[in-house]
Design goal:
single chain; about 375 residues; alpha/beta; Leucine-rich repeat, LRR (right-handed beta-alpha superhelix); 13-stranded mixed sheet; two-stranded antiparallel sheet; 17 strands; F-box domain-containing protein
Length: about 375
């Protein structure tokens, strides 16, 4: 897509014309500066911004890259806000640049009156792939604009409050958002996204363990579910067990990747329940230790959770990790390797295990330390 009209750059040395370079050469140079699959660093952003002043061809390529990612926050002098003002004024270049935005992040919007303004901005960005709201008020106006985004691949809400939305509309008149990846973490009003997300299109979901829409899971065809614990929200152990069992009981049979929090004592009842054994396609399992098991050594904890992992014969990857760096523990790579050979040898397809940052991988029938994935210094 062209941002502005352009032609192949001419080359001169004084009054003498030089051979024209194919545009592909310039594109290779731009790719060397920053691969198209990566987000620009501040230094790369400045480089591409400077290059956009060289000629119209450079401007067409470089401006599109510099506006792939936008973040709207409290900085009224940011390029995102300036672009927004130009979009509102229907400046032709700004409207073209709006089509280049692939990732849009709204951060720290604490005032409800900002809702309509955000909706106006999003309505011009037809090619957005990811939209993230962080510490924002989210209103029905946002959903109305998000719904028609045909290229949307990921939608994320963190520490947000849903003031109103599709749940307040008659079910027969609700529009549905078709997005494959959704994340709703530490938000208030979880019933709003549940009311508007088309469950049939959802494949990856990230939620808190106290997410309100557990019953909604059974109507999805999820392949990946990430359930995150939160040590700041105190919940009694028994309530946690009931909550996790409820989540597992509503899982669709399509789940292949599962991430769950583990609390002291919660694994005992969980692993022995029939719902734990009813995940036939599970290939990757991550257990996150939200609270340290009191008086129990880290490798003993690993041996305890291995009992649950052995149930899933199709498992290919198994990880036990700490919730935060504050809970980080040190384990011996040799002990990890020995324990895996002892406890998980009967899972024929298992080829990767990570225990508190020490990763080992099965190579030619032998478990080897994987330095690339390990946090530990060997």
């Amino acid at each position: 897509m062209s941002v502005i009209q352009w032609s192949t750059p001419e080359r001169r040395a004084g009054d003498r014309d030089l051979p024209i370079l194919p545009n592909e050469i310039y594109l290779i140079i731009f790719e060397h500066i920053a691969p198209t699959s990566t987000r620009l660093s501040p230094e790369q952003l400045k480089t591409f911004s400077d290059l956009s002043h060289v000629c119209k061809f450079f401007a067409n390529v470089c401006l599109a890259r510099t506006f792939e990612y936008l973040e709207f926050s409290g900085n009224m002098a940011s390029r995102a806000w300036i672009l927004c003002q130009q979009i509102a004024a229907e400046h032709p270049l700004a409207l073209s640049l709006a089509q280049c935005v692939k990732i849009c992040r709204f951060a720290g919007w604490s005032l409800p009156r900002d809702g309509p303004w955000a909706a106006q901005v999003l309505s011009r960005m037809k090619n957005i792939r990811e939209v993230e709201f962080f510490q924002c008020y989210v209103r029905k106006a946002h959903w109305d604009v998000i719904t028609p985004l045909e290229s949307l691949e990921e939608l994320s809400f963190t520490l947000c409050e849903f003031l109103d939305g599709p749940a307040d509309v008659d079910p027969g008149k609700r529009s549905k958002v078709k997005v494959p990846r959704l994340r709703v973490l530490r938000c208030h009003g979880d019933h709003q996204p549940m009311a508007t997300i088309d469950a049939r299109h959802l494949r990856t979901l990230g939620i808190d363990s106290d997410f309100d829409g557990i019953d909604w899971l059974s109507g999805t065809a999820l392949t990946e579910l990430y359930v995150y614990g939160n040590e700041e929200r105190y919940v009694e152990t028994m309530s946690r067990q009931v909550r996790l069992k409820h989540i597992l009981s509503e899982l669709p049979q399509t789940i292949q990747v599962l991430w769950l929090p583990v609390y002291p004592g919660s694994h005992i009842e969980l692993f022995g329940d029939s719902v734990w054994k009813s995940i036939p396609l599970l290939r990757s399992l991550t257990l996150e230790e939200v609270e340290q098991f009191p008086g129990i050594a880290p490798m003993t904890v690993f041996r305890m959770v291995c009992e649950g992992a052995r149930v899933h014969r199709g498992l290919q990857s198994f990880t036990l990790r700490s919730f935060t760096r504050r809970l980080a523990v040190k384990v011996s790579p040799d002990e990890v390797r020995h324990t895996v050979e002892e406890q998980l040898n009967d899972i024929s397809g298992l080829n990767f295990v990570d225990v508190f940052g020490v990763a080992i991988r099965l190579v030619d029938g032998k478990w080897m330390i994987d330095v690339r994935d390990s946090d530990s210094v060997l």
